[in-house]
Structure formats: structure tokens, C-alpha cells
Amino acid sequence: MHVSPPADAYETGLHRPRYTLALLTVLSAFSFMDRQILAVLTQPVKLEFGLTDLQIGLITGLGFALTFGLLGVPLGRWADQHERRRLIMVCRGAGGALAALGATASGFWMLLLSRSGGAVSDAGGNPASLSMVADLYPPEQRARAMSVFASGGSLGALMALVGGSWVAQAYGWRVALASVGCVSLLLTCLFWLTVQEPRRSASGNPLDARQSSLGAVREIWSAPVTRWLIVAAACVLLAGYSFGSWNTALLVRHHGLSLRAAGWISGAAALSSMVGGLVSGALADVLTRRDPRWQIGVPMLGVAAALPTGLAYLMLPAGSVQAATLLVVLYAFFLTWWVAPTYAALSLVVAPERRATASAMLLLAGSIIGNGLGAILTGWLSDRLAPVAGTASLAWALSLMLAMLLPALLAFARARRAYLPALDANRMPTPPPTPETTPCTGK
Q1: Nearest 5 degrees, angle CA 377-CA 383-CA 387?
Q2: Is NAD set as a keyword in this record (predicted)?
Q3: Edge-to-edge, what's the strand order for the sheet holding 427-428?
Q4: Does the domain formed by 8-201+209-428 have CATH 1.20.1250.20?
Q5: pLDDT tens track for 315-341
Q6: Where are the domains of the chain?
Q7: What span, in angstroms and rounded, lies between the C-alpha atoms of 378 and 361?
Q8: Conformational region of residue 61, where left means phi above 0, alpha means psi within -120 to 50, and beta covers everything else
Q9: How many whole angstroms separate alpha carbon 49 and alpha carbon 153?
Q10: What gap in Å lies between CA 64 and CA 70, rounded to an integer?
Q11: pTM metric for this prediction
């Protein structure tokens, strides 16, 4: 259990919650842009270095996932025990520096090293940022705040699709990569100079902060609500990363679009996902006033709507461009409903000294399963289905991956069932003010 900080702790001008949240979101956006931009730059990079598709897959997916897997939980635990502001500065700065270094790559191995090493930005920066946001905003505003931070991913994807492709076409892929890295470094300096470490929520157990990483992981995983939330997130991200990695190729192969036209549709979907994430956070904050279980009910609604919408999109006949645009925008809108409420729920059922570790565990599951396996597994399925399905093999492969939303729904349902007991167990009323802090009434 933990003690909630007094209400005015969230409002103090020292912390400037809105400014801090905005800067954390922009840092996340550029980190995600750095992560996604190579997908836009794949063709010129492949031609310059003579790379195979397998090497491209290692650079854009598996290398990042493995590095994240090694660093995610240890850095998350470090964020729970030390100053988060310093960790964010180091990790985001390292990510920006490695992005700029990637622009000087002379071959596959240097590019793989810079891209894989860039995972440190998300491995340490995201859990620490999520923990900081949880301390900046009270529980009744937390889902909305989390949705703003989560929108950084969609904003970064949009910037990579639109800005990255424009810069690469005008000045080359090296300039595009270097630009992202340099801007990230400048933003990191601004963060370090203008943001202060917010006050942490007080813990009911002083030993929590000294608990080992393995002990914290075991305790988080042993709780049914956190375990099922992590499983649900892994299933959604497996479907989501598969779709995101192959959707542009699907639009080109199945609907006969040019890369530019497919990029515009993908950009519209990215914008829609950002709006959907913001809507879900606001909706969760409103509905949880009636029933706290809506914190997990909102993700369930989003996944339940995304599944049939995505399947309808994938089953469209070739050339149905207008219908495809509408359906993929709707799919992207609903699929991101899980993000902000899930992280808000996670922050409410674990002790403050384990928030970053719990977030890192969820991010790790998504990185290894979603980012690491999604694109590769989809490609393998498409190859196996090609003799039977022909040119529709990719659509069928994506449909099979989209079916992972069904176990995600079941996992969210299990988490929802365990949510109220966990919430009550982790909640302790705010202590009454001491005589020294009680305002004088004159009576």
C-alpha cells in the first residue's frame, strides 16, 4: 500500500506538470521517429549497402528488441530507485547521439550497432517518463495524462512517414537520420535544464525501494491484474506491430498504390491513432468516476471494435482504395484505446517504487513479442500461404496475426476481474493534515 500525496503536490508550479508532460511527449515522439524512420528509408539504405531483406529486418526490428530486452527491466528498476530525470536525460541523449552516428554508417554492422543501441532511449526513457507522469497527475486525471504521453508514439510515426520521407527525398537518407538525432539531443538538453524531478508518492513499505530487480519482477508478475495486463498488451502489440510493419506493402501489392499514396494513407492512420489515444484517455477519466473498472473496460471496447474493423479492411477486394482508407483509419483509431488506460491502471495497482519496473515489463513484452516477432512471423506466414492464396497471402497472414486480439480481450477481461481488489489493496487514504500544516481559521 502507499500513501497518496496531498492534492496540492500535483498542482505546484515547481513541477509545471503540463510543461513537463509536453516535453516528455515530444522527447518520446522523436525517439519513436528515430525508431521508425528507417522503415521509410529502407529502399535507399538497401540499395546503397546491397543489404538483404533479412539484414533489413535485423536492423529495423530484432536488433532493437534484443537490446530492449537486455536493458528494459534493469533500467526500469533503476528509475524506481534513483532520479528519473537524470536517467531520461542519459537515455534520450544516447539515443539521439546513436541516431546521428548511424548517419555516418559505412556498412551493415555499423548501422546495426547504431540502430540496436538506440533502443536505450526507449528502454530507460519510457518507463522513467511513465513513472514521472504518474507522480505529476492525480489518479482521476492520470489516464488523460497518459494518453497525451502515449500520443508521442503516433506523432513520431507520423513525423517519420511525412517529414522523414520528405527530407530523405530532398537531401538523402543520411541527412534525415542525422536531423532526427540532432533535434533529439537539443530537446534532451532543454529537458535537463528546465525540468525538475517531481515528488514521488510515499510508499507504505520502506523496503520497496531497496527490493532487488528480480524480486520486484516476481512480485509484479505474481499479481493477477498486472500479469494479465502485460499478457493483454503483448497480444495487442503482436497484432499492431505486424500490421504497422506490413500495411504499406499491402496497400502497394493488393490495391496497386504507389509508395507515396500508400504513405499518405499510412500517415492518416497514424494521425487517427493519435486522436484515438487521446479520446480513450479522456473517456477513461470520465467513466472511472462511475466505476473504476472502466480503466480496463475502455481498452476492451477499443480492441473489440478494432478486431472486426481490421478484418473488414484486410478482406476488401483489390482496388477498393476509398473503403480501405476509411477502414484503416477507423482501425487505427480504436486500436490505440488500450494504451493510456492500461498504463494508468498499472500505475494505480503497483506501489510507486515499482511503477517504472512494471511499465518496463509491459514494454519489454511488447518489444520482444510485438516488435521482435510480429514482422518476421507475418512475413513467414505470407510466404507459406502464397502457394494457396497467391497475391492475397499477405492479407491472410495479417488476418491471422490480427486474431491475436481475441486472446487480448480475454486477458483484459481477467485483469478487469482482478482490478478492484488490487486497487483497494494498493490504496491508502491520504493522512489528515498535521497541526503544523492546518491553516489558521481564527477560531
Answers
A1: 145
A2: no
A3: 202-203, 2-3, 427-428
A4: yes
A5: 998 888 899 999 999 999 999 999 989
A6: 8-201+209-428
A7: 24
A8: alpha
A9: 29
A10: 10
A11: 0.78
